[in-house]
Amino acid sequence: MTTPTKTIIFYLNYDKAGWKVTAAYGTQEKQTDYTRPTGKDKNYTYAWRKGHNTNLNVQKQFNIGKNKKDKFLIGASYQREDMNTYSYSGTRDSNFKRNNYSVYLSYDWAMNDKSNLIVNMRQTWATGIEGSQTSKGKTTVTKNDNMNKFTPELEFIHRFNDRSSLYAKAGKSFRMPNLTQIFGTGSINPSLDLKPENGTHYEIGYKLNEGNRAWRLSVFNFKIKDALEADLTKYPLDISYYNTNIRNTGVELAVNIKHNENLSTNWGIVYHNPQQQSEKEYGDNAWHNYYGRYQLIGGVNYDKNKFSGALKVNFVGDRTSQNAEQRHIRPQFFTNLHLSYAPEKNHKFFLHLNNILDRRDITTNSSTNYYTLGRNFMAGYEFSF
């Protein structure tokens, strides 16, 4: 099996006097070949896709108000996407396109020396969503209605002193599904009725810097309607995307400690209640627990002269399966070690050791469990010029 990929990216950036302009153009061609089952040396094309992506973003910032402390930003963006694909040796040919537009503004109001109120607003439109698909000699043409969403966000920041501050924010979110999720490609089936995600998010937090410690505490809540989920029942040969609803409420506490100029550590805990509402998965409209209820995070970082190292640990406990029949599953424990040595500025040797404890944890699951890769490493050398 071969999977050749060709990618071309063009990027232009302008930043001066409050103006920021970015323009980008990219194209990607990806092909997957398999050797014919008859044993012949000649390969046949199993899946192929070629897409183009054009992006343009323009924004201007103004300093206004008393003593020019207030900041006002206005901007607009445009994205053009198109893609042609075929799969299963030409049994499914597709082409589709979409235009995304948005205008946005942000106003950072310095209410006084200690408080700021930030207002963000964005209006997004997705137009010209068209696709055609030919499968087994039959062609289907799809045109989605124009999709649009207004997403405001409000954030308040209050600084008690130079070491501590309080913030609170609330806002809306909006995310379009990828073209391949809607129209399909390769082993991804088309889901022409797929809807964009719509979310509501709330968060309040406190930050404290004392000596060599930086504390962060936050309480959050969010609910996302029509969240995008993948049906992996027949993975990897058959994948479908569908909409579901998710919600979560939780609290997070983290601290970074600088022990000396070479050694630092970071620790954190998250306790939350992620739930999913999916008639497709559970057969009803009730809310069901999924993922993990708590997460423990830790890390040790060491840097001295030409050597650096980092040990990372991540423990997810009280896990609940996304499979309605399986439910509770064992905790997940990630352990990774990263080491590097740079004898000179342009030279670096590195070693990445993943899954140090060689655990066989479930990563994702539907009707089938998928497990972490066993203990593995990557060693290499980098030269920059």
What does this 3D model show about the protein?
It is a single chain. The protein is an all-beta fold and 385 residues long. It has one domain (42-383): Beta Barrel (Maltoporin, Chain A), CATH 2.40.170.20. Helix content is 2%, strand content 72%. It is globular and about 70 Å long. The two termini are 34 Å apart. The relative contact order is 0.07. The mean pLDDT is 86.
Sum up the overall morphology in one term. Answer: globular
What would you report as the Rg, rounded to the nearest angstrom? Answer: 25 Å
Question: What are the segments in which pLDDT stays under 50 over at least 5 consecutive residues?
Answer: none
First and last CA, distance:
34 Å
- How big a fraction of the residues is strand? over 45%
- For CATH, the homologous superfamily is named as TonB-dependent receptor, beta-barrel domain
Q: Give the helix/strand class.
A: mainly beta
In the CATH hierarchy, the architecture is: Beta Barrel
Number of separate domains: 1
Number of strands: 23
Helix content: under 10%
Largest sheet: 21 strands, antiparallel
Count of helix runs: 2
Order of helices and strands: EEEEEEEEEHEEEEEHEEEEEEEEE
Query: What is the CATH class designation?
Result: Mainly Beta
CATH topology: Maltoporin, Chain A
Mean pLDDT: 86
Question: How would you describe this structure in keywords?
Answer:
385 residues; mainly beta; Maltoporin, Chain A; 21-stranded antiparallel beta sheet; two-stranded antiparallel sheet; 2 helices
